[in-house]
Here is the input.
Amino acid sequence: MTFYQFSRCSAFGIALLLTACNMPANGESPAAGCTPGAPAGQSPAGLQQVILCVTSAAKTHSFTVEAARTSVEQAKGLMFRTELADNAGMVFPFPEPRMASFWMKNTVIPLDIIFVRADGTIESIAADTVPYSMTPVVSGEPVAAVLELRGGLAAELGIVAGDKVHWTTK
Here is the structure.
């Protein structure tokens, strides 16, 4: 095998491996036009950012989200933020599915709180949550993650319960 043939085989193998790493755990193909889990640098808050995709009806929406993985990062969430871009958000992945309860303490802007099942489907959406509210916003069943977007954005984009969320965090 020549170096050129080896290089082509290696490049193909690497491309195949990268494609497999972006496949959801249930074997479905990732959302068209969006590369879930692609690194997107660090946010000003110091959190890892990744690409997250939501497939809604026949449309795929791409977001650059901050990954709040630790209990400290999850407790702070989007508190004290005064704006959130339409292509931005925060994902709160859990090690195991669980009932999720969020509040809006010290959260200046309204948010859509999207509860995501382990299979990636949206369980429910708490739309336009009230800034500073201490009232718990609770999932209807155990979920594997929560996604927060700008308040009202899910409705504007037609994102509803049952739609599919694709992401990976390392």
Residues 99 and 142 are 4 Å apart (CA to CA). Confidence is low (pLDDT under 50) at residues 1-29.
